[in-house]
Design goal:
Blueprint lengths: L2 H13 L3 H18 L8 H13 L5 H18 L24 H10 L3 H13 L3 H5 L6 E2 L4 E4 L8 E4 L2 H14 L18 H15 L7 H14 L4 H8 L4 H7 L4 H5 L4 H4 L10
Antiparallel strand pairs: 1-2, 2-3
Helix pairs in contact: 1-2, 1-4, 2-4, 3-4, 5-9, 6-8, 6-10, 11-12
Length: about 290
């Protein structure tokens, strides 16, 4: 795609897209061009429709993958090529709402202990302990650790938004140990192959995959599972949904409600107003 790829990337940067979103959008656009061996600038609605149908009927892609292709091509034609009429009639696919995979507290502990590398274990503990996306955990910088106020600053979250979350005492202890052992060069706490770049998400995924296998877990566990588990465990500990929303960095409460399914433990602690009638707590009912 050449120049078109560069322009699409620049458009996404101006929109403040997350690195993972930029990577996925470009990949899907390249697949579209490779399918026809032509530039998207030379194609339009007919080719887009046939390509998306081929993904569904021949490639048998998942609803989530299909949704990503639609999102990528809509952005490509609406923003980069400035030809919105080519994709305006392309419907957004419905994606089934499936419950996320959740690890128990014991499984989280087991996984963390199975990770031999102090660097990767610290990243995964940050993802679980703070509810971070894997990209956010990998991109942490030394000044982001505010031990005086016990806060962790998250830079450039989804939608290019910064936020602060409560810093876990256990994570702080591990961060200090990791720093003393490795003395990572600035600016990143977890540098990758090049010191001026953070470790890649894929590198952490590979380590986690091996840890899952060594623990004998049959659940499909990804780095994002740690974030799911954090949110659900916070709910089970009685934290209110608004606080969880803020910690996760969700703009809408509806996103958090879909993200953190209501567990049986959480429901079991709730009381009917009937049980409060005639008690001190019941006075708030009037």
């Amino acid at each position: 795609m050449g120049y078109l790829s560069e322009k699409m990337l620049a458009d996404m940067q101006l929109k403040g897209f997350a690195p993972s979103t930029k990577k996925e959008y470009l990949l899907r656009a390249h697949h579209f061009a490779a399918h026809y061996m032509r530039s998207p600038a030379e194609m339009g609605n007919l080719e887009i429709r046939h390509f998306l149908l081929d993904l569904l009927h021949e490639k048998k892609v998942s609803p989530a993958t299909h949704h990503m292709y639609v999102a990528s091509l809509k952005f490509l034609y609406k923003t980069t090529l400035e030809r919105p009429e080519e994709v305006d009639c392309i419907p957004w696919p419905k994606t089934p709402r499936t419950l996320p995979v959740i690890l128990s507290g014991e499984e989280v502990e087991q996984l963390l202990q199975a990770v031999q590398s102090i660097k990767h274990r610290t990243i995964l503990m940050a993802a679980y302990g703070e509810g971070l996306r894997i990209t956010e955990a990998c991109s942490l910088q030394i000044p982001d650790i505010d031990s005086k106020r016990m806060l962790l600053h998250v830079r450039g979250g989804k939608g290019a938004k910064d936020r602060s979350v409560t810093l876990s005492k256990r994570l702080l202890i591990l961060l200090r140990y990791y720093y003393r052992k490795t003395r990572p060069p600035k600016p990143y706490l977890f540098p990758g192959r090049y010191p001026d770049k953070p470790i890649s998400d894929d590198a952490v995924r590979m380590v986690l995959h091996k840890a899952v296998a060594s623990c004998g877990l049959t659940k499909r566990v990804t780095p994002h599972t740690m974030r799911h588990s954090f949110a659900t465990h916070m709910l089970e500990l009685g934290e209110d949904i608004r606080t969880i929303q803020r910690m996760l960095g969700h703009a809408s409460i509806r996103t958090t409600e879909r993200y953190t399914y209501v567990s049986d433990k959480h429901l079991g602690r709730k009381k009917s107003p009937l049980d409060l009638l005639g008690t001190k707590k019941g006075k708030v009912l009037g």
